[in-house]
Amino acid sequence: MELCIALDRPSLVENIDLVKEIKDFDVWLKVGFRSYIRDGESIINELKSINPNFKIFLDLKLYDIPNTMADAAEEIADLGIDMFNVHASAGKRGMSAVMERLNKRESRPKVLAVTALTSFDNKEFMEIYHEPIPKKGVQLAQHSFEAGIDGVVASVFESKIIKEHTSNDFLTLTPGIRPFGESADDQKRVGNIYVAKNQHVDYIVVGRPIYNSEDPRGNVEKILAELTQF
Ligand code: C5P
Predict the structure, then answer these.
(1) Ligand 1, residues 15, 34, 36, 59: which to mutate, most atoms within 8 A of Cβ?
(2) At CA 153, angle to CA 19 and CA 123, rounded to 5?
(3) What is the value of pTM for the model shown?
(4) Most buried one in 59, 90, 104, 194, CB count within 10 A?
(5) How many angstroms does the Cα of residue 106 sit away from the middle of ligand 1?
(6) What CATH number belongs to 2-227?
(7) Spans of the chain below 70 pLDDT
(8) Predicted pLDDT of residue 230
């Protein structure tokens, strides 16, 4: 299981400060809406210049018509990042278009599909999708798998059942991780590292418990120690 740190601080300088503090760790860095909209491609280059071994996950959650998604996927692949994501509810045709286009390249980033946002509780999810999270989440994961996507973004409680219905090699990345019982903030389905490990999660995403903490480096160290413990 690998650690992916969300860089959601309010400015480029603050994100870079955090990354410099943890530059010797073997971790993934997640660049999301906030920083990519504000800082664009320069944040990717800055992160790589701090440590070229950092793996970068660009969390832009594409959701559009198939041709637009495939065009955007190619632009993203040209950025030299290691992983990005789309919304599974954009449909199987859109996800297949993305993968067909990327598979023509010599190398490509990993592609994940978001099943259900971890901020949804079951009631909110039902209002949009008219089915409970576990059922619809598994169905969306199966669509992603059939479209040739590499894995899904899901809550920590759905990883095992998703792998059972797709493949053990189908990757799961789970946000909403609160390693030491921190506040859930706006997340609804949160779990700790122990749960993630039991659920055979491949990547945990941790944001506020690291970037808002008094001791981000210390927290990363503690999390990495826990990852190797179980
Ligand atoms: O601060 P926290 O640990 O809650 O950060 C979670 C990160 O993961 C945020 O950047 C959020 O945008 C992202 N994310 C999520 N749920 C998803 C997909 C991404 O929380 N389904």
Answers:
(1) 59
(2) 120
(3) 0.95
(4) 59
(5) 30
(6) 3.20.20.70
(7) 230
(8) 60
